[in-house]
Design goal:
Keywords: NAD, Oxidoreductase
InterPro entries: D-2-hydroxyacid_DH (IPR050857), D-isomer_2_OHA_DH_cat_dom (IPR006139), D-isomer_DH_CS (IPR029753), D-isomer_DH_NAD-bd (IPR006140), NAD(P)-bd_dom_sf (IPR036291)
GO molecular function: NAD binding; oxidoreductase activity, acting on the CH-OH group of donors, NAD or NADP as acceptor
CATH topology of the largest domain: Rossmann fold
Family: Belongs to the D-isomer specific 2-hydroxyacid dehydrogenase family.
Radius of gyration: 22 Å
Protein name: D-3-phosphoglycerate dehydrogenase
Order of helices and strands: EHEHEHEHEHHEHEHEHEHEHEEHH
Strand order of the largest sheet: 8-7-6-9-10-11-12
């Protein structure tokens, strides 16, 4: 049936994160790829989006204005049916505007969960063993007293998760299985039984920050979560506890975290994300020896890049075959999307199960 289908145009900037995506999509005779570059003239880019049925959006670190998938772009892309993010996060896509326009939004959640979970575990180990502090001190101090960087074991400690989706669940599995840690999880969308099935004990946000030896954040960035962690949460932490953030910048208040660290309200932090990425060299949090930072690369490993690209390509193939994509964020858009899809391609997509 695929050879009789009309052509679906998929626009994307730069390159796919792994060549596997192009191999997958190259085997789909009814998908035409529009490989765009930010340096192209505006008229060429606008013409491509005017024809596009799909838009594969770059992450926030790489995307440029005015190519965020927002209401303004949707107005320039009247044929757009679907927008997908490159990774698990989809904060470069305005889900509300897409839903209103009958555009479905998808992401690649779960395709890089192993990479991020292992990164979190690495930060937990590096912070608790004071590896980062020891490295910095040894490089600048002659005759360093090794007892000055005495760390702590993590076995039997308490992990607090803010969000226990696919990545949080894998973090819980690693910490419980390897180190016998107690796992508390705050997730308002899951009941106690579901959280228990994922390896945690349901707790409030207040309980997570007050009781945990390590607080790790695993939520998407949206209106609900932006700025949700600030001075009150840091003040509730034990002075021996560590804060870890590998989800998205803007969810935690960076200025308040710097103040809390300076006041000794917590023992340190491991940060893979910032509101502005990369952060400027004079960012206050970069001045602390007990803060380990990485450039939003927790989910970037060779394996994860392959799995994200393959997962995205397979999902695009499903979308244009009229199937329900596996990582659909806004199912409420499906009725209007279905009408628009049928008008574009001459057949209706499958109904939501």
């Amino acid at each position: 049936m695929s050879n009789t289908l009309p052509t679906a145009r998929l626009s994307y900037f730069s390159h796919w994160m792994d060549p596997v995506a192009l191999r997958v999509l190259g085997a789909e005779p009814n998908i035409a790829l529009d490989h765009l570059q930010f340096g192209m003239d505006r008229a060429t880019l606008d013409a491509a989006f005017a024809q596009a049925h799909g838009y594969h959006a770059l992450p926030r670190v790489e995307i440029q204005e005015p190519w965020f998938c927002d209401a303004a772009l949707l107005a320039r892309a009247p044929n757009l049916l679907a927008a997908c993010s490159s990774g698990a996060g989809f904060d470069v896509i305005d889900v509300e505007a897409c839903t209103k326009a009958g555009v479905i939004v998808c992401h690649q959640s779960g395709t890089n969960k192993e990479a991020v979970a292992e990164h979190v575990l690495g930060l937990i180990l590096a912070l608790s063993k004071k590896i980062g502090v020891a490295d910095k001190m040894l490089r600048r101090q002659a005759g360093l007293d090794r007892f000055a960087v005495t760390g702590r074991d993590i076995r039997g400690k308490t992990l607090g998760l803010v969000g226990i989706g696919q990545i949080g669940t894998r973090v819980a599995e690693l910490c419980r299985g390897l180190f016998g840690m107690t796992v508390l999880a705050c997730d308002p969308y899951l009941d106690a039984a579901e959280i228990a099935a994922r390896g945690g004990t349901k707790a409030t946000m207040e309980e997570v920050f007050a009781r945990a030896d390590f607080v790790s954040v695993h939520v998407p960035r949206n209106r609900e979560t932006f700025g949700m962690i600030g001075a009150a949460q840091y003040a509730a932490m034990k002075p021996t506890a560590y804060f870890i953030q590998t989800s998205r910048g803007g969810i935690h208040d960076e200025g308040a975290l710097a103040e809390a660290l300076a006041a000794g309200q917590l023992a340190g932090a491991g940060l893979d994300v910032f509101l502005k990425e990369p952060p400027p060299p004079d960012h206050p949090l970069l001045a602390f020896d007990n803060v380990i930072v990485t450039p939003h690369n927790a989910g970037i490993t060779q394996e994860a890049l392959h799995d994200m690209a393959e997962g995205a390509a397979l999902q695009w193939a499903q979308i244009f075959r009229g199937e329900v994509p596996p990582r659909l964020e806004n199912p409420e858009a499906w009725p209007l999307y279905s009408k628009r899809f049928e008008a574009a391609f001459g057949f209706a997509p499958k109904a939501l199960g």
